[in-house]
Amino acid sequence: MRKYTEILKAISDEKRLRILRTLIKSKTGMCVCELMDTLGEQPYNISRNLKILQFLGLVEGRREGKWVVYSAVQSRDEFLKYVIKAIDSIPNEFFREDDLRMKLRLNLRQAGRCVYGVNSRAWNEAVKKIYKQIL
Amino acid sequence: MRKYTEILKAISDEKRLRILRTLIKSKTGMCVCELMDTLGEQPYNISRNLKILQFLGLVEGRREGKWVVYSAVQSRDEFLKYVIKAIDSIPNEFFREDDLRMKLRLNLRQAGRCVYGVNSRAWNEAVKKIYKQIL
DNA sequence: TTGTCATTTGCGCAATTATGCAAATGTAAA
DNA sequence: TTTACATTTGCATAATTGCGCAAATGACAA
């Protein structure tokens, strides 16, 4: 039973919930620096929480050169399927900024791959531009 | 978003998960002493955790004389429905003893109501009898 | 009222978990 | 090899949470 409660506890942390949800929504998976820019978190917070999610079988990571790309695992387990559905049932309004920034960050990719590090000039300008548009 | 993570955290605790699941399975609701006997927990652990579940809208309590009867709330909320389904997807084998003891405890009722306090003679004999049968 | 039983709650301690910093590791390009 | 960047991890500390005890509350019957 421990496995089940560990999974619930893992996603009961807001940071991990946002990381997992972002990876699910991204479809393609994302590298650590893309998650950092998207969620505005420190590298160790992203990395450590990804490790926890990975240990529980919720995400998986693969190295691609300097980058490590994580993606949500598509599970056949009934428990996990309902957990994912529950996450997906949380109204999008709570993740509006995450979703916007993820879209923006993935737009910086070239040939479907991350090419900028964290907090890059390109990223900062893209964010500034959008926030100006919105306000 | 806090509300959602709080609910996940609440059921990520094994004691609370077992309390909630037991109430769901019981259909009729159960009083604190029935939960104590069923789960083998101290009164303050049952009571405090019920309060947390109640605060989050997962269970509701009503007083019936000396007893306070709690029951699982049937929610219309999509998030909660999937959370309940997830709980229901955890294999029953993990709750075999809980289920047996719940059935045993509810069998002691008269006219559908709890009539024995915690750790009563009737309860102890019922348990001893069943455990002798099984072993 | 008094006593008894069922349940709740305040308080302090123990255990767990999250977080930041700094250092370490891994990878590729200069 | 050196450098730069991406990611991970060990360690110490802060914050949160769980738990037991003892006392309080609520309800009913003697």
UniProtKB/TrEMBL annotation, chains A, B:
Keywords: DNA-binding, Transcription, Transcription regulation. One of its GO terms (molecular function) is DNA binding. InterPro entries: ArsR-like_HTH, HTH_ArsR_DNA-bd_dom, Metal_resp_trans_reg, WH-like_DNA-bd_sf, WH_DNA-bd_sf. The keyword DNA-binding applies. Pfam families: HTH_5. The keyword Transmembrane helix does not apply. Residues 1-98 form the HTH arsR-type domain. Gene3D superfamilies: Winged helix-like DNA-binding domain superfamily/Winged helix DNA-binding domain (1.10.10.10). SUPFAM superfamilies: Winged helix' DNA-binding domain. NCBIfam families: HTH_metalloreg (NF033788). This is ArsR family transcriptional regulator. It comes from Candidatus Kryptonium thompsonii.
